[in-house]
Amino acid sequence: MIAAPDRTLLARDFFDRPVLEVAPDLLGRVLVRTDPDGSTDPIELRITEVEAYDGPNDPGSHAFRGRTARNAVMFGPPGYVYVYFTYGMWHCMNLVCGPEGRASAVLLRAGEITEGVEAARKRRLSARHDRELAKGPARLATALGVDRSLDGTDACASESSPLSLLHGTPVTSDQVLNGPRTGVSGDGGVHPWRFWITNDPTVSPYRAHTPRRRRT
């Protein structure tokens, strides 16, 4: 018999570690999206794919060149949510790692919706299968209704927080693969800091960086 996932809230010290320790350890954990006004059922997502971004040591990180209004949450306490808007279309969700002031974070790239599937489907009408609901960072944020209004949310505060992390069922090291991060260019593109659960159907396909063409 498979044991039920542990519903204990992850403590802040879980995130107060080097980002390359936290990232693979997030696989199998459960992210809960709660609507404070109760108009939407809670959605639970089992994390299956992540990417680590190591602040000042990482040319691919938003914080590589220092603090800005956009990335300020990355410099705050561990366990907070950093949400950014990209390509003028999509939001992506990250979890800040410690220590405070270090500006490292883990991008949530993909996951399996385990509760609240109907609510996620309403936000992801183009998904052909449930395994595609959160297959990719923008799809994940869309399925959960995550936008910049949730930037700075404390995911360790309580289970009633709009976003919280539960212990779940962490995977063993032999179930984890790693490789280059998706779409990262330049010196940051060489780091094998994408981690995913082996053979999980919700993991997104790898794509190398493709330079965007300027309109003529």
UniProtKB/TrEMBL annotation:
Molecular function terms, GO-annotated:
hydrolase activity, acting on glycosyl bonds
**Organism name:** Streptomyces tauricus
The UniProt similarity line reads: Belongs to the DNA glycosylase MPG family.
Gene3D superfamilies membership: Methylpurine-DNA glycosylase (MPG)
Q: Which NCBIfam families match?
A: 3mg (TIGR00567), PRK00802.1-3 (NF002003)
The protein, known as? Putative 3-methyladenine DNA glycosylase
InterPro entries tied to this protein: Formyl_transferase-like_C_sf, MPG, MPG_sf
EC numbers on record: 3.2.2.-
| UniProt keyword list | DNA damage, DNA repair, Glycosidase, Hydrolase
